[in-house]
Design a protein that fits this description.
Length: 192
């Protein structure tokens, strides 16, 4: 359950999309998060845990993720002062939001570390392959359901917010992303 309410960059972006663009867009973003988590679990389950734990891989990942999240943080912190609520998006934007959900979650080294910790904990319990699979399917579906609920709630909240509050949300998300990017870049710097 802790994973379902984990607050990271994906959470803040999911809320931002739900408030600004509506439920369907946020659900598309949440589906990208779900596929990212499922991909990480599958990679670890099938033996890529050593690669993901490799210091060189983590350094490179921290650098790339730090730069990308820094760019998003700057864009949202210092972007235009007028927000536009966009409720109707073409179907073409849904794949882009799906890919953003996947990328933001997958490029977050903390997500990788979190799943490694979960895998290690489940592995210590002595579960067999069937129990292992059942646990992760249940965990992933719970996280996805919670993300869909967050998307719905953000959409409902978005109907009540003015442009001023939407801009504040944008700035808060930007500051959170700036802080996270600095943490990632600091991790990269300290790894030398």
């Amino acid at each position: 359950m802790t994973l379902a309410v984990f607050v990271g960059p994906s959470f803040f972006y999911l809320v931002r999309v739900g408030v600004n663009r509506g439920f369907t867009s946020a659900a598309s973003f949440a589906a990208g998060i779900f596929l990212s988590d499922a991909t990480l679990v599958a990679l670890m389950y099938f033996g890529f845990k050593d690669i993901l734990n490799n210091a060189l891989f983590q350094r490179g990942f921290s650098l790339v993720a730090g730069i990308l999240i820094l760019a998003l943080g700057i864009k949202w912190s210092f972007g235009s002062t007028k927000m536009k609520k966009v409720k109707k998006l073409g179907l073409g934007s849904m794949p882009a939001l799906f890919l953003k959900g996947f990328a933001i979650n997958f490029l977050n080294p903390f997500t990788i570390l979190l799943w490694i910790a979960v895998l290690a904990t489940v592995g210590l319990s002595g579960s067999d392959s069937k129990e292992y699979l059942q646990f992760f399917v249940a965990a992933l579906l719970t996280i996805f359901a919670m993300d869909i609920l967050k998307a719905w709630y953000a959409n409902v909240l978005g109907k009540w917010l003015t442009d001023k509050y939407l801009q504040i949300i944008n700035r808060v998300v930007g500051v959170v992303f700036l802080a996270l990017s600095l943490k990632l870049l600091w991790f990269f710097y300290q790894s030398f």
